[in-house]
Amino acid sequence: MSFSILGTGKAVPEYILSNDKLSTMVETTDEWIRTRTGIHNRRIITTETMTELCVSAAKQALEDAEITAGDLDLIICATMKGMYITPSEACVIQKELGASCPAFDVNAACSGFIYAMDVADGFFARGKIKHALIVAFDNLSNMVDWNDRSTCVLFGDGGGAVVLGEGDGLKSIFLTARGNTDVLYAPRGELTSPFETHKGERPVLHMIGQEVYKFAVTNMVRGVRKVVKDAGLEQKDITHMIPHQANIRIIEAAAAKLDIPKENYVINISEYGNTSAGCIPLALDEINKAGKLKKGDYIGMCAFGAGLTTGSCIIQWNK
Ligand code: ACO
């Protein structure tokens, strides 16, 4: 027994940071950002907290699933950096929801949501749980260097949540990681012991964009082909393809090598930029709430991120 998705939710901060506004902060232009990335706006946390947004997405997903926090047997939060070093963000969310079940975080960068679903699948397969909540949220505005135009224009804050219940919605899932700390990373920064202080690199996101680009296109194509085959489907059967929203050019380059109809891609990068682990559940909630999902539809998901990690899966919509 595995899971089906019973409900979805999303949460983004209110503040909209446009390309034009960014152009007053670093040397860039709306035209450069739009043509190189497809991003027009991104949301940035100002007055809200990450936890408030995570809890809002979780409550929407519970309501959509028609269950209560008391019915949850597991909470996983996919994030690189919660409000505390410890406890996990999942435990902080649990406290706010009033749930009483195991809770922990998964850090697989932008692939975190798909990693979390694979972890949850194990709990369902062992018959240990009937309902799980996954919240995927990253607060990247808190990690990027706002003086570095090559990274700060790409990211935004936001995320989503799903409630999973026993079912056969998960058709295939495939994770990879390749142990790379050079092309995409954020160091912890200064470390101290009682005896000395180790000066580290600045604790901001570092990225060799073109290396990530090549990795992303190759591995999105590989991952999608594999999970479609493992599910016993053909690419044309995928009614909604939700790729990680890092760069429209990455999505288009991967799509050109796949046979999924172009109109089946779910793309909202122009409004949110790259929200890391949050991208896929955020987009999923938008098509769910817009009434675009029909029972039996096949949803493809595919992400890549620091690690370098990738995650791909096929889910049948059973609601
Ligand atoms: N505005 C204006 N000019 C800029 C900007 C900017 N915001 N950023 C870079 N430039 C300049 C560069 O300095 C360079 O100038 P030069 O030619 O004088 O040296 C020029 O634009 C071209 O830069 P490139 O890096 O070659 O631009 P490219 O077309 O590769 O696009 C980008 C850069 C958008 C970063 C692209 O490589 C990309 O999307 N890579 C993947 C990034 C990604 O997916 N990251 C998310 C990973 S997910 C996670 O885990 C967090």
Topology readout:
Elements: E1 2-11, E2 15-18, H1 19-22, H2 30-37, E3 41-44, H3 50-65, E4 74-78, H4 89-97, E5 103-106, H5 112-125, E6 131-139, H6 149-152, E7 157-167, E8 170-177, E9 184-185, E10 191-192, E11 197-198, E12 206-207, H7 209-230, E13 238-243, H8 248-257, H9 269-272, H10 279-289, E14 298-305, E15 309-316
Parallel strand pairs: 4-5, 4-6, 13-14
Antiparallel strand pairs: 1-7, 2-3, 6-7, 8-15, 9-12, 10-11, 14-15
Helix pairs in contact: 3-4, 7-8
Bound molecules: acetyl coenzyme *A.
Structure description:
By secondary structure, the protein is of the alpha+beta class. Helices cover 32% and strands 27% of the residues. The protein folds into two domains: 2-168, Peroxisomal Thiolase, Chain A, domain 1; 172-316, Peroxisomal Thiolase, Chain A, domain 1, CATH 3.40.47.10. It is built from ten helices and 15 strands. The strands form five sheets. A five-stranded mixed beta sheet has the order 1-7-6-4-5, sandwiched between helices. Strands 8-15-14-13 form a four-stranded mixed beta sheet, with helices on both faces. Helix 3 crosses helix 4. The protein is globular. The mean pLDDT is 96. Bound molecules: acetyl coenzyme *A (ACO). The site of acetyl coenzyme *A has 25 residues, from helix 2, helix 6 and helix 7.
